[in-house]
Task: structure prediction
Amino acid sequence: MRHPRRAGVLAVSALLLSPVLAHAALPPRATAPAFTAPALPTSWPAVPVGDRLQPYLAGQLAKGTTTPLRVMVSGQSTAAATAAARTSGLTIQQTWQSVGIVVAVGAPAQVRAVLAQPGVTYVEGDEALTYQLSTAHDATRSNQALATYKDDAGARVDGAGVSVAVIDSGIDGSHPFFRKDGKSKVVANLENVCSVATAPTDTCFVQEPVTNDTDTNSGGGHGTHVAGIVAGVETTTTRPRVSTLRGSAPGASLVGLSVGAGLSIINANSAMNWVVEHQAQPCKPATEQTGAPDPACPPIRVTTHSYGPAASQGGNSFDPNSATVRIQQMLVAKGVVPVWAAGNDGGDGSSAFTNPPAMDPTPGVLMVASYNDGGTGNRDNQLSSFSSRGNKDIVGSFPDISAPGDLITSSCRPYLSICATGLDPVDGPGAADIGTFNTISGTSMATPYIAGVVAQLFQVNPALTPAGVEQLLENNAYQFGAQTYVADDAARNPDHTTSFDRGHGLVDVAATLAAQQGLPAPGLPAPSCLPTSVQVVDPAGDASQVVLLDTPLPSQPSLDIREGYLQRDETTGMLTARIRVTDLAAGPPAGSVGEFFRFYFTRGSDPEVFLTANRRATGETFSLRQQGAITRALTNGSFDVATNEVVVSFSPDDYAAVLATAPALATGDRITVGQVLAQRDTSAATLTADTAAGSCPFVLGESTPVPSGSGASASPSPTASASASPFASASPSASASPSASASPEASSSPSPTSTATTEPSPSCSPKNEAVKKDKCKDKDGGRG
Result:
């Protein structure tokens, strides 16, 4: 989701990563097997009697109350916990068989008695919780990632095939943000009906059979808003402004677990236990969890928790014996990543105000701080003032990573209490979608963003462990600001640095997915897009040599992309693509197979096409191609050493010939430049390349890019007339002020002549066949 104030930054449309780089840069990676969870424990270590009482429950007992107390009794086994509760006279309400815990109620004296029973490890009270209340897809480079990377099946990386469990107030699955192909992305939507009843888990959580809406009045809209940040589909709002919104992982599935009318630790833990028992087959009973995954209801690999203690009471500490920790460690063992909100209590580092269960040092448990991009997509802004800080002296209390949490526009309903606090209602696409989106701030909003990124990682590699997910996210985070980052000695990621307030930094979705897939990360996006913007801007010195791993080669200026852009001669209609590098060589070095430049672009909903500029010992060739289809040889191209540019021109007729059924290019057409590639193959099993991803559009007849480098002098396009903003997603003038959104505190209350030809794939020369094997047979026809 992008808040309307982010109008100046383009939402890049879907495009495809160069198959040349995807196939030739690295040996093909075998399709990852499904994650295999280790055997789960059936017993837990003994705990001395003096260490069994939770501090919160001790405080309740010290008040001298005679009111019955609802508690969680953890045991060395389920049988031990059950026997202890019964012997003490407690009434058992729920049995969480998978984690050795029973929920029981009884008089204070009976609660005290259960502490001394054999096999008891911990006893906790039913502590009240509070919710930890568009999204900057440009700041996180999520737009680039979604537009660039593909999974092993060639699909975009949007979280498909992964379910995210949203443990919250519930989800309105009928909301337009969750509708795709006539169906709801909320594949299971359950509500807890066992606040006081005695029943097993499968009876306590009941599927909403009619409306697919489980959001509760008490948490009014919180869960629906959170779920939209995870997996809302691309949706265009209408009034009072037009904006294109989406979730972090718009292809992921959602499992809603409403904790019921009262947000308490027992109800929340009951939902976590449900995930332990239903993780593999979330749409089937606990007794039917074997067999192949259901594509319509995929396994849960992520849980999101946007709640925490109702009060920090001067500071928080990690409780390793708590039921929450026991359950989430079971989740991690099953390959599930729990993602927690850090909290909204601020702090200065003198005490830990972060969420206690999120401090769990188990690799794969994530705590998320809230980043404020200032409404611009800026990656160097600041942490949200409300985001809870850890204790500077206790690394284990630090957040793990930051994500956008300020002014997040997502799914809501105007009649729900928390949605109403946003004070920035926006109508959805349908005539009846009145006020169906609103803008709220908090770590509650940052947390589901990370949950969506985790789903993307599991899509490209289902065999990842939760620990591996954490490593990828943290090692590729963008360390913003002047804050000191220190060694992470809290057992989770000792080879990286972290900070007490922002963790390892701002999540970088593009860099994280690139690292997982063994590909270079795309270049940074232009900070804003205007009719004069160059479509691709890339930093210096990032060309890489690939054998098995990328090795920085700043000494390769002839392949070091700096800019890439389209221009049009308004008189002839000819379009010219220019790729400027730092220092273009006169020809490919001796011993190389050749150098190859690619310029990928898409007009609207047309298939993606790309221009090629190839030079070998036998000469130079230029072409316009559609992936896996028609190739059009071009005669108007050059490698201009004087301007350090690779230039290729084509005509509207060339474009029409390549796409066959597409209409001719016309004034006003919006073209998205997807990716620019510079590549050199050698006779050895190595490849040198640089890639840069596009970030700004080119609008025929409106855009006149102004290059910043030495190639700026030759411009075939006349000055474009003043035009409206080329952005389809938002209007800068319709931005909402920061005051139009509730604070997190408020949320707690409520080309010339050419001919068709077939060009051999340059990367599949005989010298490279031994390396690339069968991949060469469809080099430019497959997507990896």
Remarks:
- The longest strand covers residues 670-682.
- DSSP finds 16 helices and 38 strands in the chain.
- Residues 143 and 412 are 23 Å apart (CA to CA).
